[in-house]
Amino acid sequence: MDFHHSARSLELQDRVRQFMQAHVEPVEELYYEQVKPEASRYKTPQILQDLKRLAREQGLWNLFLSGEHGPGLTNLEYAPVKEIMGRILWAPEVFNCSAPDVGNMEVLANYGTKAQQERWLKPLLEGRIRSGFSMTEPQVASSDATNIQCEIRRDGDDYVINGRKWFTSGAMNEDCEILIVMGKTAPDHPDRHRQQSMILVPKNTRGVRIVRDMLTYGYDDAPSGHPEIVYDNVRVPAENILLGEGRGFEIAQGRLGPGRIHHCMRLIGCAQRALELMCQRAVSRVAFGKPLAEQGSVREDISHSFCEIAQARLLTLQAADKMDREGNKAARDLIAAAKIVVPSMAARVIDRAIQIHGAAGVSQDTFLARAYVYARFIRIGDGPDQVHLAAGGQGADQAGRGDGIGRDAVWAPPLKERILALAKDPRLITIGDHVALGHPLVREVNGTWVGSSCMQLLAGGAMMLQKTTQLTEGERARLDSIIEFERRHLLADLRAGRPDVILVDTHLLSAVPFDWLAWARSDPELEAELSRYREVEDTGGRVRILVARSGSER
Q1: CA within 20 to 30 Å of 58's CA: 64, 324, 362, 481, which one?
Q2: Are 129 and 177 in contact (CB under 8 A)?
């Protein structure tokens, strides 16, 4: 890794730092004063509106987004900029870089239709409205997203939504106009990760009822809020579905990866500010005849904090770098590691700063109490520590057995170069478990991701079982239903997306060979679509590439 930030990142760091010092830091407490009155508790305070206009005028706006909607910063370039914003808890919104809007804008930019983008993404990018993300439910362990119970039922040209959510980030704000809701459209689907969908629900839709705002350690996080919401026969048009039925888990994973890194960046900024306050307090206060800074335990706390912040920062930058070079999926272990390390680190550092400040540390006179609540909450939000620890342990176990060797090769630069050589601005479909979430790769080649399928894993695995296992009629029928669902799902993507390139991951369970292309071409409907493609020369055995034939070839 190059430990020098790019010239563009350094320039933006300097500009954001100067903006924060000149305009945001002097009014930090004024913001909270304007939020206090009950009558305007959830109204965006005027000082924030003024700062947003000023930031946009100076071009410090939507810095998190790449491509046509943003300045094109990489995650590695954006990370230190977000750290500077994170020093004041509400500052990211000044630059239109706050949660949950950041994640929701990324969802709409990556998965939304043109109509959805025009209606909702455009005003979000302009900062005219805000949004909410409605996923967590009080009745189930929502850290396992397959537990989600909210019903999204098709009814003619509409979907009808029934369920109860809480901690719907951002939904209390008066400027919040759109909610992204996750629920189940196919609760009986044999693949638990294809049961969920995400849908756009305007906040003012009949049947959307806010029950209460949820507090965290007594704080309500106004003016954004995290309310409990009941969806009671909420009816929205069918075109509000995101990406299609059964794609909710897929979208959630694509949304939460970058979101976790953004939280880490902010928390490092909080921890760095806490360390600086700790140092200032230590040299300005005297106890037992000498400054706190000369007390051995205080020095140790400061030293530990400095080391832990530096370690966490490097881990976060390493994850950001890998996201840029190889895609979010390839970087998932590092993203999980950062999500484990950074919130706990920030909570420890802030807690030390609170201790050194004494009573002032737990009062409203410093930012420390609010910052501690944020750090502690993020050990649960966007996936609790235990989920990421379990995933990291499983990855290490696979690597120890050799199962994980070569997995990252799917995203190796030569493959990106091959795709770019085959088609300019390609439309891609990805097939197979390791390339199924192909959108990170597609973004890097400036293409359009039009579909994905785990068909090779699911259908191939089902066929293996049929060949090698004694099955009951019921078990055989269930496997047949898996194969048929995946066949129809892929066929719809091929017909609707008209991809230029199809990537097929050849890595599958090795017990029984499974030639996906041979199987697909045995199906008349799939063969009719695949006849439009030719397979290019071998790429090393891991990924097979099909490219659309030219008019003369057909």
Answers
A1: 324
A2: yes
Read off the DSSP letter of residue 500.
S
Residue 476 has pLDDT above 90, yes or no: no
| pTM of the predicted model as reported, rounded to 2 decimal places | 0.73
Number of Cβ within 10 Å of residue 345's Cβ equals 23
Distance CA(388)–CA(375), nearest Å, equals: 16
Q: How far apart, in Å, do the first and last CA atoms of the chain sit? A: 46
Query: What pLDDT, on a 0 to 100 scale, did the predictor assign at position 545?
Result: 76
In sign, the C-alpha dihedral spanning 369, 371, 374, 378 is negative
Burial class (CB in 10 A: 0-12, 13-18, 19+), 431: buried
HSE-CB of 553 using CA atoms within 13 angstroms: 9
Residue 366 near residue 360, CB atoms below 8 Å: yes
Q: Length of the chain, please?
A: 554
Tens digit of pLDDT for each residue in 411-432? 344 555 666 666 666 676 666 5
- How far, in Å, CA of 194 to CA of 243, rounded? 13
296-343 per-position pLDDT tens digit: 899 999 999 999 999 999 999 999 998 888 887 788 889 999 999 999
Sorted by sequence, the CB contacts under 8 Å of residue 200 that are 6+ apart come out as 116, 120, 178, 179, 180, 181, 236, 240, 241, 242
For Cα atoms 436, 440, 445, give the angle at the middle one, nearest 5 degrees.
Answer: 110
Cβ 44 vs Cβ 173: under 8 Å: yes
For 166-319, strand residue ranges (E) read 176-184, 196-202, 208-213, 227-237, 286-287, 290-291
The Cβ of residue 49 has, within 10 Å, a number of other Cβ atoms equal to 14
Q: What is the dihedral angle through the alpha carbons of 310, 312, 313, 314, rounded to the nearest 10 degrees?
A: 90
Residues 6 or more apart whose Cβ sits within 8 Å of residue 43: 173, 174, 223
Q: How far, in Å, are 66, 89, 117, 220, 236 from residue 457 at the CA level?
A: 32, 43, 32, 44, 34
Least confident of 150-154, 247-251, 281-285, 436-440: 436-440
